[in-house]
Amino acid sequence: MKYIKTLIALLLVVSINTSFAQENEIKKEKHKKHANEHKEKMQRHKKQIEKTKEGLQVQKKELQEARKQLKSKRKEGRNEILGNHKETLKNMSPDERKAYLEKHPELSQKLKTHNMDMKEHKKALKQKHVQFKNEKADAIQHKIEAKKERLAYFEQRSTNTDSRIAAAKKRIAKNLEEGKITKEDYQEKLDKIATIEKKNNALKEKMISKKELLIKKEAQLMKINK
Fold first, then answer.
1. What are 195-226's pLDDT values in tens digits?
2. What is the pTM (predicted TM-score) of this model?
3. Is residue 78 in some structural domain?
4. Using CA atoms, how far apart are residues 159 and 155, in angstroms rounded to an integer?
5. Which of 26, 31, 48, 12 lies closest to 156 in space, CA to CA?
6. Has residue 21 been placed in a domain?
7. Which of 22, 161, 186, 216 could form a disulfide linkage to 176, CB 3.0–4.6 angstroms apart?
C-alpha cells in the first residue's frame, strides 16, 4: 500500500513537471511566433518606406530640374523680347526704364504677357512642390508610426525580461535556501541570468538612442508642416 502511494505521488510529480514543461514550450512557441510576425511586419514597413523614399527622391530631382528650366525659360524669353532694347535699358534707372517702356507700349505689353505666363508656370510648379511636401510629410509620419510601434514592442519585451529575471533570481535563491540546488548550481544559474540581464540592458540603451532619433523625426515633420 505504501509502495502504491509512493508510486502515485511520483507519477503526480512527473505529471506536474511534464505539464509545466509543456506549458513553457507553448509559451516559447507563442513568443517566437509573435516575434516572427512582428519582424515580418517591420520588414514590410521598411520596404514600403524605402519605395516611398525612392519615389520622393525622383520627385525632388524633377522639381529641381523644373525650377532650373523655368528660370532659364524666363531669362531667354525676356532676352528675346527685349532684343536690341536690352543694351539701351541696361544702365537705366528704374524711373528711366519706366519712361522708356511707356514710349514703347508694344514692348511693354510683350514683357507683361511673358511675366504673366511665367507666373502661371511658377504657380503650377508651386502646386507640385506643395504636393511633394505633403507626400514627404506622409512618408515621415508613416516612418514615425512604424518606429513607435517597434519601440513599444521592444519596451514590452524588455519589461517582460525584467519580470522573468526577477522571478528567476527569486526562484533560484529559494531553491538554494531549501537545499534543492548547490551553491555551484546557484552561481551557474546566476551567471546565465547575468548574461540575459546584460543583453536586456544593452537593448534599453539602444531604445534610448531610438527615442532620440524619433524626437528628431517628429521635429522634422513639424518643420515640414509649417
1. 999 999 999 998 888 888 888 888 888 887 77
2. 0.66
3. yes
4. 6
5. 31
6. no
7. 186
